[in-house]
């Protein structure tokens, strides 16, 4: 930063995502936490000058759904189905985390997001096992310096520990029932202790208990009413992704007059057209996480139907335990999947024009998410007066060169290593391709130690017992499927 906290990004290829600013070759002046000016040429003698002649400047990405705590588990979920995820992640790995692991997962997960140019994040945080876990989860995000909402998950977490002898009742009893007193008290404490102000980079939210969403609206009604007494920025709800679709959570909440702009439904491939209309008329958003939805059989991603309903879509990453936590892959997977669908159905098998383009995906991954989070007035585009949430992406790498169309380059060729710089709220969190203010070798050592601790604990729980307990709940006779080869 130069004097008075001024930084001048000079000569950038600017993709603003703001129609009034457009795309241009030019300069961006950051003063304090804001974008002060964007113009073909700006003079600011007292500013720190950054030569961006070989870089694209664009708004930071907005990830509207991530279970950030699972960062240590990269690679474990790559071949999982949703059934595997339920058994292994929710009933086994989560049990293995101590408060240090909770901190490390959220801290490094947020760094991983920032490194990939994500400046705003909705953390669907269902690892609220003890007050110490909760403190670790909040502090991890705060220490990383990301903008976002930590949605405190009111899940009934397993009560057993690694090494305990398990029985069916222990596992089943942990997945249903009313809101626990522990969560009422602990969530209120977290709200008061960590989020006394709503003006911080990180805001307080709630993540509802998903199992209740499949069976009965009553627990959800109670949960939403209770959650709103804590004035959360958002309430994140896994919904309509294919399990027991007899129960309609969107219309059920509407029947109780509870829909509103603070509700963020996630996945939602199986929403009805009426559900979409209710959301549009009464408030409520849908976050699409294309890669997990395709991998885990959650249905055809709903994003396109959200657009057609006249609402705003967004993209989320969901779980970094089964793929890279960047937005590049999500934009590409979503776009190509939609094109496949158009050719198969809308165009009656004839491969003619697709209605969606790379720029649409970039908009959904920036402004779309910001709109859903209620922060499009301060971020989501490069607009003078908005907060300086800016990324610079290098155009000179082997994989990016040559850049003819910067939007094409961002959506189809870039990866996290191409991101040179990231500012969040005017603070440089990545410069020259490296995260600022941290010693990565030391952070990595702590991350690996946490991973080792979790895997040691994991080995003490019987996977067969867990799968056996869950199989009848899912109506499965065979809890495991043999590999194809
Ligand atoms: Zn999720």
Any key phrases for this structure?
485 residues, alpha/beta, Urease, subunit C, domain 1, TIM Barrel, 9-stranded mixed β-sheet, 16 helices, 37% helix, globular, binds zinc ion
What this model shows, in words?
The protein has 2 domains: 3-60 and 381-435, Urease, subunit C, domain 1 (Roll); 61-372, Alpha-Beta Barrel (TIM Barrel), CATH 3.20.20. The mean pLDDT is 93. It has helices at residues 82-96, 99-115, 131-144, 168-172, 181-194, 210-213, 217-229, 249-255, 273-282, 290-295, 303-308, 327-346, 358-372, 406-412, 440-458, 463-470, and strands at 6-15, 23-31, 34-39, 48-51, 55-59, 61-66, 118-125, 147-153, 202-207, 235-239, 263-267, 285-288, 314-315, 390-394, 419-424, 427-431, 434-435. It is built from 16 helices and 17 strands. A hairpin with a 2-residue loop joins strand 2 and strand 3. The strands form 2 sheets. Strands 1, 2, 3, 4, 5, 14, 15, 16 and 17 form a 9-stranded mixed beta sheet that branches. An 8-stranded parallel beta sheet has the order 6-7-8-9-10-11-12-13. The protein is 37% helix and 20% strand. It has 485 residues and is an alpha/beta fold. The protein binds zinc ion. Zinc ion (ZN) binds at residues 65, 67, 124, 238, 266, 318. Residues 65, 67, 124, 238, 266, 318 line the site of zinc ion.
